[in-house]
């Protein structure tokens, strides 16, 4: 198994347990997708992907339809995707993906979390290079062989395909998302969920006390409503 498998296994143990928080994130994703490509999923690949993720998170269909309708309202604020970078205590790099309608508020909040937890907010590009930006898909296991599928999808950018109890997972570079999505749809393979992740190239092992220091900062950041995802270079237990 490769780095994507280990990364997924580590992240699956924790993070994003609150269903309401997941729904809030999906709602923002819907707004950004509709503002970018319109409200018709057939003509908007990004919106199709978000709707698949909503189903995977058991978000009620009426919530999804309401979010799409709201996003078409010209008075609905759009969200801007902003990346923040910095260091937690003990030299752990942190990369934060946000979706915000008020950048000044988000900057002030993120900076305050670093300051309160003995971290350092970095400049643009200070830690992003330490992470590989990837896309991923989760599809059903039935009738598919992961090894055969990996060989078939290499031409579309797939780098790692593996199976676990949740299905078959496909990982590829960020730029391969559209090609793989289209190929899976052409093959009539159900996409259960899809998305983007940043996988650390190298992780650092910490003591139990040091882990607690880093977790304190991570928890503060993750509780922020503007935060969509948080990635770090701390080795997961």
Automatic annotation (TrEMBL):
Primary localization: cytoplasm
Any one cellular-component term (Gene Ontology): cytosol
InterPro entries hit by this protein: Integrase-like_N, TACO1_YebC-like_2nd/3rd_dom, TACO1_YebC_N, Transcrip_reg_TACO1-like, Transcrip_reg_TACO1-like_dom3, YebC-like
Domain TACO1/YebC-like second and third: 79-234
Annotated keywords: Cytoplasm, DNA-binding, Transcription, Transcription regulation
Segments forming domain TACO1/YebC-like N-terminal: 4-73
Location of this chain's protein in the cell: Cytoplasm
Spans through the membrane: none
Xref: PANTHER family: TRANSCRIPTIONAL REGULATORY PROTEIN YEBC-RELATED (PTHR12532:SF6), TRANSLATIONAL ACTIVATOR OF CYTOCHROME C OXIDASE 1 (PTHR12532)
Protein name listed in UniProt: Probable transcriptional regulatory protein G6047_02655
Organism: Flavobacterium silvaticum
């Amino acid at each position: 198994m490769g780095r994507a498998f280990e990364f997924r296994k580590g992240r699956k143990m924790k993070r994003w347990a609150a269903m309401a928080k997941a729904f809030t994130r999906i709602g923002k994703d819907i707004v950004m997708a509709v503002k970018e490509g319109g409200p018709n999923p057939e003509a908007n690949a990004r919106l199709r992907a978000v709707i698949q993720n909503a189903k995977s998170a058991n978000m009620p269909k009426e919530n999804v339809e309401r979010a799409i309708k709201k996003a078409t309202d010209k008075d609905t604020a759009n969200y801007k995707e902003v990346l923040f970078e910095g260091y937690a205590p003990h030299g752990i790099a942190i990369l934060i993906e946000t979706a915000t309608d008020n950048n000044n508020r988000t900057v002030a909040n993120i900076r305050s979390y670093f300051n309160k937890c003995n971290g350092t907010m970095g400049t643009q590009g200070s830690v992003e290079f330490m992470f590989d930006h990837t896309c991923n898909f989760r599809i059903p296991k039935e009738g598919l062989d992961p090894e055969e599928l990996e060989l078939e999808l290499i031409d579309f950018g797939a780098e790692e395909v593996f199976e676990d109890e949740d299905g078959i997972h496909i990982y590829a570079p960020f730029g391969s998302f559209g090609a793989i999505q289209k190929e899976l749809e052409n093959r009539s393979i159900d996409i259960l969920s899809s998305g983007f992740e940043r996988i650390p190239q190298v992780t650092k092992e910490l003591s139990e006390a040091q882990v607690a220091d880093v977790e304190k900062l991570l928890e503060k950041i993750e509780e922020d409503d503007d935060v969509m995802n948080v990635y770090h270079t701390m080795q997961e237990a």
